[in-house]
Amino acid sequence: xxxxxxxxxxxxxxxxxxHSLEELEILLLLSLEPRKWWTxxxxxxxxxxxxxxxxxxxxxxARRGMLKTENAAExxxxxxxxxxxxxxxxxxLRQAYKTHPVKVVQAIYAQPPDPMSEFAKAFxxxxxxx
Length: 130
Hints:
three-stranded antiparallel sheet
């Protein structure tokens, strides 16, 4: 188990798929009712961030195969990770967010170091080294 206290699988899912608290809230909302179709406005009514942002997040999840889309009068979205493993990850995520919300948020915003930045740091000359 990594330092975060979350399982390695869950931490990998969070860092790979969720880039903001808003995305976490949207994904948890849609996964709670996997058979329900949601419009961006319906999601916004629950999440209360910004309509444009909610719509962009939904489109991003759809492009990644996490949501199905249906073109009716308005585009609708449905949670689509129906396999056992993703369902278990979502259940683990929901439980971790209930019991350890700070750890989940830290995992979302903990960015791995950029390799190029780390390489450039090695060549920096500090005043005290001159």
